[in-house]
Amino acid sequence: MKKLVLKLAGLGGVLVGLLGLAGKVGAYNLVEVNATSVDYVLAYVGDLFTDLSVFVWLAIGIPLGFWVISKVIGLIRGRTR
Questions:
Q1: pTM
Q2: Average of pLDDT values for 13-31?
Q3: 52 FRET partner, CA 20 to 30 A, in 18, 24, 69, 79?
């Protein structure tokens, strides 16, 4: 049973691969990339990272702040004993 499943999976993979290649034969005419589209995409990605930078700094800073606070509390507790 296991061999049959593996053979069917392999056959399915080959069929999907062949159908995928057959569908992409004429695809190079469907997408045009020129200088303005590249500039637009780069500007969009730049704006996206600029907007996400606040969330990235918060994701780094909040756990780091809690870690520092716990270490300071641990140092204070250690000195009082």
A1: 0.42
A2: 57
A3: 69
Ramachandran area for residue 8 (φ above 0: left; ψ -120 to 50: alpha; else beta): alpha
Q: Widest CA span of the chain, in angstroms? A: 77
pLDDT category of residue 50 using cuts at 50, 70 and 90: confident
- Domain locations in the chain as residue ranges: 1-31, 34-81
Supply the pLDDT for residue 63: 96
Residue type, 73: I
Provide the token pair at 59: 């994701």
pLDDT at 40: 86
Q: Is 22 helix (H, G, I), strand (E, B) or coil?
A: helix
